[in-house]
Structures are given as structure tokens and as C-alpha cells.
Specification:
The structure holds 2 protein chains of 2 kinds. Chain A is mainly β. Chain A has no helices and 11 strands. Chain A has one domain: Immunoglobulin-like. In chain A, the strands form 2 sheets. In chain A, strands 2, 4, 5, 6, 9, 10 and 11 form a 7-stranded mixed beta sheet that branches. Chain B is built from no helices and 11 strands. Chain B starts with a strand and ends with a strand. The chains are: A mainly beta, B mainly beta.
């Protein structure tokens, strides 16, 4: 398995609170991604990073921000969580090109009450 | 807008049967088609297909791509209960666009 960990694995929070999810990799891969997975929608890209301090938006980026200060860590922040952000969040990594195979972390289940 | 459609949405078969899962795609600058298996955790990579007509095979699983008709199939022969999972396909241009998956259930 690719060396990807996510923390926390489960979180319950209340509407309006800030939440940060962490993705950590030991593969030294250039690209890192955040997806959310919801029934009926499949996996949808939130944000991605193509290097330290280099990030870009995906198709469902509203309400989310990201940061990457080190190659191995990619943080996803919900500034003010809403119930519509209840989901399973997956981090993925790929090696050197955006078209390289993406490998997924174990996921974080987030519930916003 | 890029789109990936998988069929059927769900499938229930008996152990030992052969199944075929379908994936059609419309993406602007197609590079590759990927298949993943998802059990109760992260999607795990199965195949990447870039060329038409060349079958990729791994044990009882195989997959092929048709770039003219814009689809791919995933075949599983002699199914086992461990094959029960959601199978995802994704089309790659500058990013991955995923289908919603096929839920496969194998009955012993």
C-alpha cells in the first residue's frame, strides 16, 4: 500500500466550527488531492496540490481551503463547517505527472451536526 | 462537462459466475481510463488503460478500452465472495472524473 495516512479517521463536529483534516504521505510524491465521496455522486475533487505552496481548485472547492507547506503534508480546512459537508473525505497522491495513477488514503468520515 | 457513467448500478450474482461491468466516458482531453475496487475503505487501484484493444489482466480480472466508442469493460471470471465491492472507473484528462460506481455482490 502507498504510504498515506489521514487524521483524524472519524470526526463529529457542530455547524459553524472550523475543522482541519490532515493527509500525510511518505512516498515523496509531487501531487496530492482531496476528494469527497457522497452517495449518488461518486468521488469529487475538492482541491489538489502540484508542489509545496502550489494548489488549485477542483470541482467542489466552495467552503474549503487547503495548504501544503511540506511535501509530505496536505491540509484541508473547512473554515465554518456546514451539514452539507458531512461526507467521507479521501486524500490521494500521484507521483510526478497529473496523469499518473492516483493512490488513495484510508479516508476520514466527517459528520457535521 | 466531463462525464463518466457506469452500468449497471448494482449487480448480484452467485459465486462462480462471470460478470462484466461497463464504463462510458466523455472527457475533453482523454489520457487514460482507470479502474478501482472499493470495499469498506479506500479505493484500491486495479488497472490503467491508455490504448484501445489491449487487454490488461490480473488473475481473474481483465479490462479493455475502446477509444473509438468511448467505453471500457471490466470482466471478473469465477467470482468469489471477496470480489464483493464497489467498482469505480475514472477518466483522466487533466484530472480524474469518477463514475458513481457499480456495487457488486457475490452470493455464496
Amino acid at each position: 500500500d502507498a504510504g498515506i495516512t489521514q487524521s483524524p479517521r472519524h470526526k463529529v463536529t457542530e455547524t459553524g466550527t472550523p475543522v482541519t483534516l490532515r493527509c500525510h504521505q511518505t512516498e515523496n510524491h509531487r501531487y496530492m488531492y482531496w476528494y469527497r465521496q457522497d452517495p449518488g455522486h461518486g468521488l469529487r475533487l475538492i482541491h489538489y496540490s502540484y508542489g509545496v505552496k502550489d494548489t488549485d481548485k477542483g470541482e467542489v472547492s466552495d467552503g474549503y481551503s487547503v495548504s501544503r507547506s511540506k511535501t509530505e503534508d496536505f491540509l484541508l480546512t473547512l473554515e465554518s463547517a456546514t451539514s452539507s459537508q458531512t461526507s467521507v473525505y479521501f486524500c490521494a497522491i500521484s507521483e510526478g505527472l497529473p496523469t499518473d495513477t492516483q493512490y488513495f488514503g484510508p479516508g476520514t468520515r466527517l459528520t457535521v451536526l | 462537462e466531463d462525464k463518466v457513467v457506469q452500468s449497471p448500478l448494482s449487480l448480484v450474482v452467485h459465486e462462480g459466475d462471470t460478470v462484466t461491468l461497463n464504463c462510458s466516458y466523455e472527457v475533453t482531453n482523454f489520457r487514460s481510463l482507470l479502474w478501482y475496487k472499493q470495499e469498506k475503505k479506500a479505493p484500491t487501484f486495479l488497472f490503467m488503460l491508455t490504448s484501445s484493444g489491449i487487454e490488461k489482466k490480473s488473475g481473474r480480472l481483465s479490462s479493455i478500452l475502446d477509444k473509438k466508442e468511448l467505453f471500457s469493460i471490466l470482466n471478473i471470471t469465477a467470482t468469489q465472495t471477496g470480489d464483493s465491492a464497489i467498482y469505480l472507473c475514472a477518466a483522466h484528462d487533466e484530472k480524474l472524473t469518477f463514475g458513481t460506481g457499480t456495487r457488486l455482490t457475490i452470493i455464496p
